[in-house]
TrEMBL record:
Keywords: Hydrolase. SUPFAM superfamilies: P-loop containing nucleoside triphosphate hydrolases. It comes from Sorangium atrum. The keyword Nucleus does not apply. The keyword tRNA processing does not apply. Belongs to the SIMIBI class G3E GTPase family. ArgK/MeaB subfamily. This is Methylmalonyl Co-A mutase-associated GTPase MeaB. InterPro entries: GTPase_ArgK, P-loop_NTPase. It holds the Pfam family MeaB.
Length: 329
């Protein structure tokens, strides 16, 4: 017999990892019935959520995000004796839509610890590489008792700033030797970062990492100060060797204390909740639009005209929206 939403929530609140996994699976499902169940589960979990430290982690390809998350998670569960949930978003293929979902294999130490929960999820092509249900998963993990939530995204790009809109602190991982890499980092990301960590500061990279740190500190000083008054901190670490990881977390806690003291953490989360509302509205409107019988009848023909260049996308969109307004509502 399938568990009811109440049974699912009761299990989740009791720390049942299987119940948590089932709840997140419901949130990720595109089936209307599953979405309804996920909505009810979320409503029941909201009063029990909100107390965790939410950290977003992004970085250039090859920077060692999974190794860093593994090392940071181990520090939290073993050194600090806390719990941690990792929401690792895998890139979905633009061709066949699949994803590798191999993050657990890249976090071997953390995956074996009972105080840690790792949930790899396909991005599904969503903005910023953040899975469609990641916001819900954060709430569910908090309700399940995890005191730290780490959201690992697929990489750096203009849309990757989406992770900053669902976490308390935004951490950017970079490689030693700023140079060309500094030029390649999008301005939008640099304006949103709270922490920059130069990873792989080991072996022959120690001096290069120190130079990169100075370069990033100089670059960040060129940006106007944030309204909340926090100045981004630049650090170095070797996730492979475990050096500098505890210092990175201390900076996360310093940032959290700063944001709480000025009331900015509550404001940030309130703004995130408001944007979540409109994300859901936009998504539901798009689904309703595409389900409309009138739109479905005209869509393939209009698409063909747009592809042939005989109809502009602007006019095509207006015609389809007018059809939806007349017959789809």
């Amino acid at each position: 017999m399938k568990a009811s939403p109440r049974q699912l929530v009761d299990g989740l609140l009791a720390g049942d990892r299987a119940a948590l996994a089932r709840a997140i699976t419901l949130a990720e499902s595109s089936l209307p019935r599953h979405q309804e169940l996920a909505e009810e589960v979320l409503e029941r979990c909201l009063p029990h959520a909100g107390g965790a430290t939410r950290l977003g982690i992004t970085g250039v390809p090859g920077v060692g995000k999974s190794t860093f998350v593994d090392a940071l998670g181990v520090h939290l569960v073993r050194d600090r004796e806390e719990t941690v949930a990792v929401l690792a978003v895998d890139p979905s293929s633009p061709v066949h839509g699949g994803s590798i979902l191999g993050d657990k294999t890249r976090m071997p130490r953390l995956a074996s610890d009972p105080r840690a929960y790792i949930r790899p999820s396909p991005s599904g092509g969503s903005l910023g590489g953040v899975a469609r249900a990641t916001r819900q998963a954060i709430v569910l993990c908090e309700a399940a008792g995890y005191s730290n939530i780490l959201v690992e995204t697929v990489g750096v790009g203009q849309s990757e700033v989406a992770v900053a809109d669902m976490t308390d602190c935004f951490l950017l991982l970079m490689l030693p030797g700023a140079g060309d890499e500094l030029q390649g980092v999008k301005r939008g990301i640099m304006e949103l970062v709270d922490l920059v960590i130069i990873n792989k500061a080991d072996g022959g990279n120690v001096d290069r990492a120190a130079r990169a740190r100075r370069d990033y500190e100089s670059a960040l000083h060129l940006f106007p100060p944030a309204p909340h008054g926090w100045a981004p901190v630049v650090g170095v670490c070797s996730a492979q060797e475990g050096r500098g990881v505890s210092e990175a977390w201390e900076n996360v806690l310093r940032h959290r204390a700063h944001m709480q003291a000025g009331g900015w953490l509550l404001r940030r989360r309130a703004a995130q909740a408001r944007r979540w509302l409109f994300e859901v509205i936009e998504g539901r409107l798009r689904e309703a639009f595409l389900r409309s019988a009138g739109v479905r009848e005209r869509l393939s023909g209009v698409e063909a005209l747009v592809e042939a260049g005989s109809l502009s996308p602007l006019r095509a969109a207006r015609q389809l929206l007018e059809t939806w307004g007349q017959r789809g509502l």
